[in-house]
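We treat protein structure as text, and this decision shapes the records that our systems exchange. The remainder of this section carries one protein's record, kept here as part of the documentation:
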Amino acid sequence: MRVSFVLTVVSALGLMLVVNQTFVFSRGIDFVIDSQTFMYVLAAILFPVVFLVRPTTGDKAGPIDWALFCVATGVFAYLVVHAHDIIYSSWQYISPLEARIVAFIGWLVLIEGARRTNGWPLTVVVVVMSLYPLIAGLLPGSLQSVNTPFWDLFGFHFFSFESVFGVPMKAFADLVIGFIVFGLTLQHTGASQFFNDVAFALMGRVRGGAGHVAVISSGMQASISGSVISNVMTSGSVTIPAMKRTGFSGTYAAGVEAVASTGGVLTPPVMGTTAFIMATFLNVPYSDIALAAAVPAALFYFGLLLQVDCYAASRRLKPLPEDQIPTLGAAFRDGWHYMLVFGTLIYLLVQGMNESRAAFISTGLLLVVNQYKKQHRLDLAGFVRLLQNIGRGLAEIIAVILAIGMIAGGLSATGVLSTLSTELVYLAGDTPIALLVMGALSAFILGMGMTVSACYIFLAIVLVPALVQIGYNAIAVHMFVMYWGMLSFITPPVAIATFAAASIAQESPTKIGFQAMRLGSVLYFVPFFFVMEPALLLQGTWPEVAKAISTAAVGIAAIAWGLQGYVHRVGTCAAGPLGWLERGGLIAGGLLLASPGVPSLGLGHIEIAVIGLAVIAAAVVLMAVTPGLQRQIAPRDALR
């Protein structure tokens, strides 16, 4: 049997199941699947495919892969058959030995699935955390608990609602699938070309236009697809060569693309998988998460665009050649149907429709209107390829989701979560900012070896309750953890987004990584800003929101000037120690201006903003009165 045939059949069955569960079509024949059984059936259909699309060696599935496919199918089919007993007979506490043996086999195939899709770092974390209850009685301090018997542990992982089939899988089944299907359908119908054309039309005529195009295009594409690496590869193949042709260095061009693609995953309307898991954790509509993410995302792209413009101004880079710039009218004439689809999706979400329904309705609309466009019209072979790519994507994601559920399961089985939160609050004492810094470092380190979703889930269980208990806003803290988990995409030594960009730019990934850190530095600061000032997440009155956004925007502009060593209408910073003083003043003033205040010193938001403005003004005056030390002053500073 061919893998392509299995993949097509599985994808079709999985999509029919999900669509039926979303719209409850089967209610007409008086048949409704409960949510728990639905997750078992979904896992039985989708998960086993991962062993065929990620074979042991080469590109072709061998006997071992087919054997694992059959074993995995058998494990989850067993759960489907016994779903009633699992749910209503408390199998998470008392289950037949036969069932616990099946669960142990299931644990083994989940570990192998995680290894094939995400490598050893995540696999080791899942193994350690999922087996932690076996030795909990031997550990010191707050990690100590009663040991869980061997067979009981695997029964808990598979038959409870807090491990394999806990919050991550529930979010995947109820929310994520629809948006993955939407994103993949956009890619197959040529949306990336539309995003590029719009970005070229809007930004191609400004100085260093190729860099601005990369920021706008990558941000739009990643916000819809939710995937950093695929966006770097699709958008970057156009934008990185264009930047290099117009005077950007290879490392700078690749850094811009990596950072812009990373930021897109934090940008509404779709964002990434983690945002949907966050909505499930917080028990709020996804639209609330998307709305809260809007201002930080806008501030991030504002800072990135300013840095690109400063770079272009200081080096007197030219716009793109006129013959390479499409008109905005032409771009919309060819891609009007995408705007119709995006508008429909946003309207449905704002109106409060179930997120999965909104995504599937938008996907259906896209497939219909796309057939009227000859350029990207899908024939039967195109539909089959789309179906297969959806199946492959869902299989790889569910393999990770099921595995990382066991991280939460390992902690839940021991009951140490409340103890850990109490210990963390005690450690923070009178300096809650210390716990926030510890959270940032933890998210960053975990993000190096785990997926963002796994990193977020772990910290949402262990650390977030402590931060909320201290008094930080719940949505702000959850968003903080997600932001810092994302930073490993652009921060060496991992920086996988820069490795993807390096393959296009033909430059050193390490050099690109350090360039990306500078370009994406706003990402390191913004999470602290919105945790300490939730008005940046639109959590507050409109006067508070307006004050927070305006001061943060000016502060981020100053940070961008300092990082690039250039101020509009003034020029570049001086060389040597004086230049570092000017840069330091701009960055320090920007941080002060964007911060919410220092209550321990009796300084509120207004007082600290005034101090920040004074520091920025001093740095700018110092640059203005030392013109002889300036390297160059660009004649045209307006971003136009």
Notes: The longest strand covers residues 566-567. Residues 548-635 form one domain.
